[in-house]
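Blinded run. Sample ID left blank on purpose so nobody reads anything into the name before looking at the predicted structure. Input follows.
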Amino acid sequence: MKRVMITGTGSGCGKTTVTCAILAAMQARGIRTASFKCGPDYIDPMFHREILGADSYNLDSYFCDRDTLCYLLDRGSRQAEFTVIEGVMGFYDGGSASAYMISELTETPVIAVINCKGMSDSIGAVMQGFLQYRKPNRIIGFIFNQLPEKLIPVVKQLCRDLGTSYFGAIPKHNVPIESRHLGLVTASEIAGLQENMQTLGALSEQCGMPELLLALPDSPVPAYQAPVIPKFEHAPAIAVAKDRAFCFQYPENMALLRETGCEIRFFSPIADSELPESDGLILCGGYPELYAAELSANTAIRMQIQTKIRNGMPVIAECGGFLYLHRSLRTKDGTAYPMADVIPADAFPCDRLQRFGYVEMHADTNNLLCRKGEMIKAHSFHYWDSTDRGGDMTAVKQNGTQWKTGYLNETMYAAFPHLYFYADPEIAARFVRRCIQYGESK
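Blinded prediction complete.
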């Protein structure tokens, strides 16, 4: 098993481009490849999945301890010959949730990407800084993005001088990966994505990158203690929203629910006319604001969801799912579209990101996921807000900033922050138990 982390000097340096190039090249060679993304990112793994045709997973050291990280890494890469972990932000950014920290906890070799546009000899200063800034580190070499061909001998010599390794150079190219307010445009929205990824794979082949990576020594996953996942003999069926509007979903959350015994039944609030027969409901995040007209026009399923929730069906609705449960959702052009009308408030756009970052949510009342006074870890990032965000939990950021949030009761979690079940499997277990009770009462 060979494994490497592709990190970078900062956001926008080309980590995703290089990662996709490597994945595409390995796929073209027939190498069984697994992929992961550091941090709470939903969008980069969509690109990984589009190339590999298989799930890409998250590794997040804010949510997970070392044992859980290694368990998730092992489970997701067990059948792979080569594993790629894409970093988050710059290598050292993010404190205890940085790519640096994840590389240390999982004992993963690191290759750093440098965007060389507008640089020549200064590339060496950047390399030396990353190699020396924090010791120990697991940086074994560099990949040079947007590097003119004439500078390849220069960077190879820099690698020799600094006692590190050259793993290839991606020249300037015209393979677009666009961005929008929550990150990259999703993979399914890019016309000709497969052709673009094949182009990136070919660029990596031209500089010999796959050969250099495949020559790396094996990197076994460190020994770990697997998390305890509750099992239920008569576990429920869970309806899970999944379409263009609801696409921010951790596959690990679905995997954990399946491990408890649940059956996952995906549906589209945009296209489907009926909710699947189920005992519980998950409305994940995504871009409901971009598809507000279509969501609103599907009156049948909106009303079904409203009725089911009002009649006690357990529901987790986070971020975009929370917006969907509002009375209305206003788009940037000022149009207010009727939504499921479970939350007595209206959603509206903001000019900048709201309440971004990791949070600890402290329960002010007993609820679906925890008891009063208990804490749940979560992550918040949204450009839309609410006329009433709710007040059943107190969210606290790592810098001490806090606010009230969420509509929670014994059958509902509806709030902006996103949940990660492996942070505390008991969160999922409580949801499953309530779904079982609901199913038995029908």
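Unblinding after everyone has recorded impressions. The chain has 13 helices and 22 strands.
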